Amino acid sequence: MTTREATAARQGLGLAAISFLGLMTAAGLAFLPLKAALGGAIGIAAAAVAMFRPEYGLGIFFAMIVFITDTVDGIPGRTLTILDPDPPGFPPATVSFLLFLALLTFFRKVLLERRKSLVSTWGVVAFAGIIALGWLTGQAGGWPLEDLQTDSTRWIYPLLCFFICANILDSYQHIGRFLAIFFAACAVKAALLLAYFAAGRGFIYESYTIVSRDSAELMAFSVMLFLAAALLATGRMRGRQHAFLVLGALPLLGALLFAFRRSHWLGLILGGLLLWRWSDRIARARFVRYALLGLALAVPLAIMGAVYGERGLSGELARIGARFTTFFDTRQHSNLHHKLEAWYTLQDLLEQPVRGLGIGSKHSPVPSELVGGWLEENQPTEVVHNGFLYIWMKLGLPGLLFILWLGFDTLRRLGRYWRDMPDSPARPLVAGLAAVFGVWLPMFLTGPVFSYRHQSYMLVLFLVLIRNLVALELRRAALEGQAFSEPMPERTESLSGARTT
């Protein structure tokens, strides 16, 4: 198909889509209740945006993931809890929009434009085969069909998300536009969460309140904070861009601090060290200045909030210190249970190490006398609080090896990028995103990441962004035969402040 034919086909498809969406909106307003009609109209508008600007459509999808609560611990009306709309006869709104984006991407990118993806499709096919093997293993293990079906979506939907992200975020412009939307969504959500927390309406954890229990949004907040720091350290941010990043970074930092999640505190430290390691000397000096500025702004606000908070200043400081010390307390309840849970799961896996237990499976519970009388039937044996063991349990050794290979291959590509292109203008963008590896390590060691749909979407998103950015830079290096210290012929302003094509 020629370029002219492809353009004509897209225009015809767009005209037909607008006509159809307009008719659907009119019918909904005429025959449905107002709330349902408004929800449908918003969905139709989002679909229309996605058809003409796929990167904006993907931004809408991940903004939904940030704003919609992935845990059931919130109290509607008291906490900032936004439930995923679930119209009768349809999947939840986020799943429906994901499926729509997958179909749109397939028809537009594969059938109409016939554009080759920046990442190999063989990896998607291989992982789909691993999922199929996990299903067969679970079926042979006699696990209930309902558990098999529910569990399989935890792997199929992230695979679709990978396909969508890899084919939409395939240019500097698309990545820059998407990240601007995503950063704004994270900053607004963090500010709202802090406002609820300051009003004493945060999420309940043990005997006190916290900003958030949702590890997916905390992962996103961490990476957007790293990204803001990396871009500000370039010194190229001016005017509105500079204000946008600074004003957005402050609520992100506050939300992460007052979430009181130990793994995310550790992730901030490890990710910050990676960002420092991958930055040049000038950027490191700016990091110090911004860190001092952040402390100058954050400390008085934190003290003020603590003084008027539920526990007072000394109580909040003691609470933060207590959370840090529990890292090393082997007798602390959750630490003890997670350690024993991992041990008993490992014993189950060693009985059939290659196949694992299969999709829909459950591991042996921890004897109740070892975990303070927690009854075995009340323990969540469908998950294990170790991401690596969880993958091994559900997808067997092939699934674990594939995920490990994907992570190490991404680090290998990053190493080649740091070595061969020290002057790349996209380097701050890549460094800010790649710092997520510091967040992933404690998350995988302490939680079943892929058992939460939103966490798996976020993981896929950042993995694709890193790999696609590195692929774009390597492609540009191959075309020009040099590291990219010169501007490209077609110039547009990217999020990093550098001129890119």
Overview of the molecule:
The radius of gyration is 24 Å and the shape is globular. It has helices at residues 3-31, 34-52, 54-67, 93-112, 121-140, 145-168, 172-198, 215-232, 239-257, 262-277, 281-307, 312-325, 333-351, 387-420, 427-434, 436-446, 453-480, and strands at 203-205, 208-210, 492-493, 499-500. It has 17 helices and four strands. The longest helix is centred in the C-terminal third of the chain and has 34 residues, at 387-420. The relative contact order is 0.11. It has 501 residues and is mostly helical. A two-stranded antiparallel sheet has the order 1-2. The protein starts with a helix and ends with a strand. The chain has one domain. 69% of the residues lie in helices and 2% in strands.
Order of helices and strands: HHHHHHHEEHHHHHHHHHHEE
Strand content: under 5%
Task: Give the integer mean of the pLDDT values.
Answer: 82
**What's the β-strand tally?**
4
List low-confidence stretches. 482-501
- The tally of domains stands at 1
Distance between the termini: 24 Å
Q: Which keywords apply here?
A:
501 residues, two-stranded antiparallel sheet, 17 helices, disordered C terminus
Indicate the topology.
Layout: H1 3-31, H2 34-52, H3 54-67, H4 93-112, H5 121-140, H6 145-168, H7 172-198, E1 203-205, E2 208-210, H8 215-232, H9 239-257, H10 262-277, H11 281-307, H12 312-325, H13 333-351, H14 387-420, H15 427-434, H16 436-446, H17 453-480, E3 492-493, E4 499-500
Antiparallel strand pairs: 1-2, 3-4
Helix pairs in contact: 1-2, 2-3, 2-4, 3-4, 3-7, 4-6, 5-6, 5-14, 6-17, 7-8, 7-9, 8-9, 8-10, 8-15, 8-16, 8-17, 10-16, 11-12, 14-17
